[in-house]
Amino acid sequence: MTVIDHAARTPVYRQIGDRLRDAIERGEYPPGARLPSEADLVREYGVARGTARAAHRYLVRLGLVEVEPGRGAYVVEAQP
Fold first, then answer.
1. Counting CB atoms within 10 angstroms of each CB, which of 7, 8, 12, 39 has the fewest?
2. How distant is the alpha carbon of residue 22 from its chain centre?
C-alpha cells in the first residue's frame, strides 16, 4: 500500500491526484491510457471510494483526464 499523509494540509484526494498528474507528465500514462480505477486507488492508498473518485475529478478539472462512466478514467491529449 502506498503511504498518504492523512495529517497533511493537502487533502488526500489531491495528494493522490498530484501523484497521478506527475505520472502523466512523466509519460507513464500517455494520451489515451487508462488510469488506475477507483477500486485500484482504494486498494493502493487505503482510502474510501469517494476519495478515489475525488482524485479522478480533480484530474478532470485540471483538463488532464476524462471519465467515461462504466469504463474508467483516460488521459486526454494535451491542449496547446
1. 7
2. 10
